[in-house]
Amino acid sequence: MEILTNRDEIRAWAVENRKAGHSIGFVPTMGALHAGHLELLRTSQTQTDRTVVSIFVNPSQFGPAEDFNRYPRVIEQDKHMLRQAGCHALFYPGVAAIYPQHFQTSVTVEPLGSDLCGRERPGHFQGVATVVTILLNLVRADQAFFGLKDYQQFVIIQRLAQDLNLESKIVGVPTIREPDGLAMSSRNRYLSQEDRQRAAAIHAALAAAKSAFTAGEKRSGRLEAIARRILTEASIHRIQYISVRSATTLLPINTVHTDGVILTAVKVGETRLIDNMLLNLPDQASPSS
Ligand code: AMP
C-alpha cells in the first residue's frame, strides 16, 4: 500500500493511475477504522480499479468544546487493517498539508448545513464541506464513497458535488451495525459498558418507527413519537432531535409519501450518537444505487 502525505503526492498518484487507465475510488475517513469504514473500502474495490482511503482528523469540523483532541488516533492499527483489506493507497496528510499558511477559503451548503446536526454543531458542516471539496479536487476519483450512517453529511456532499460540478460520483453505502443494532462508530469506544447497552435503543427506536410506517402509519409526528418513547424508556433523555424528513432534500414533511428518512441525534452519557433509517427502502439499500 502506498502512503501519500501531501497534496502533490496524492495528485501524482491519481494522475498516474488515470493515465494507466485505472478507474479510481476514494474513501475519506477520520481513521480509527472499523467494519463500517471497511465496507466503504470493499464497495469501492468492487466498483473501481484502484482505491485510495484518506485518514485526516479535520480540525475545522470540530467545535471548540468537542472531542478533536481526544478523537481516537490509531494510525498503525489503521494501516494494518487497510493493508489486510488490500487497499492500494492511503492518503495521510498532516494539518498543514490540507490547510497551508494563508488558507482562507470555506465551502458552505446552506440552509442544509444549519439544520439537524448543524443546529447542535454550528460550523461543523462548513468544515466537512470544505475538507471534502479539497479532497475530491485532489483525487478527482470516478466514485467517492460515503456512509449513509452520516445521512445529512451524505446529502450535503451530494448537493455540493452537483452544485460545484465536481467530477466524482457520490455513492452512499448502507450502515454497518453491531449485532444489537448499534451503528458502528469510532466514538462508540467512548461509551461505558452500561451506556453501550442503552445505546442499542437508538436502532430499536428507529426500527419501531419503520415498522409502524410499514404497517400503514404515514404521519411524521406519530412516527417520531413512537421512536421517542422507546428512547425515553431506555433512559435516553437527551434527545437533540428525532425527525422524519424527505430522504432527498431533508426538508420536514408532515406525511411520508414517496421518500422518507427518520433521523436522530442523542447523548448517551457524554457521547453524542447519531443514526437514521430510510423508511421506504430496505435497510441494505442505498438511495443512490
Ligand atoms: P468517519 O471516519 O467517522 O468520518 O467516517 C468516514 C466515513 O465512514 C463516512 O462516510 C461515514 O459515514 C462512514 N461510516 C462511519 N460509520 C459507518 C458505518 N457504521 N457504516 C457505514 N459507513 C460508516
Bound small molecules, deduplicated:
adenosine monophosphate
Coarse structural class: alpha/beta
CATH topology of the largest domain: Rossmann fold
Question: Can you tell me the number of structural domains?
Answer: 2
Radius of gyration: 19 Å
What percent of residues are in strands?
Answer: 15-25%
CATH-defined superfamily of the largest domain:
HUPs
Report helical residue fraction: 25-40%
Based on the structure given, which CATH architecture of the largest domain is correct?
3-Layer(aba) Sandwich
SS elements, strand count? 9
Would you mind describing this structure in some detail?
There is one protein chain. This protein is of the alpha/beta class. The two termini are 29 Å apart. A hairpin with a 2-residue loop joins strand 8 (261-268) and strand 9 (271-278). It has two domains: 2-173, HUPs (Rossmann fold), CATH 3.40.50; 186-278, Pantoate-beta-alanine ligase, C-terminal domain (Pantoate--beta-alanine Ligase, Chain: A,domain 2, 2-Layer Sandwich). Helix content is 37%, strand content 18%. The mean pLDDT is 96. The chain binds adenosine monophosphate (AMP). Adenosine monophosphate is lined by residues 29-30, 36-37, 39-40, 146-147, 149-150, 173, 175-176, 183-186.
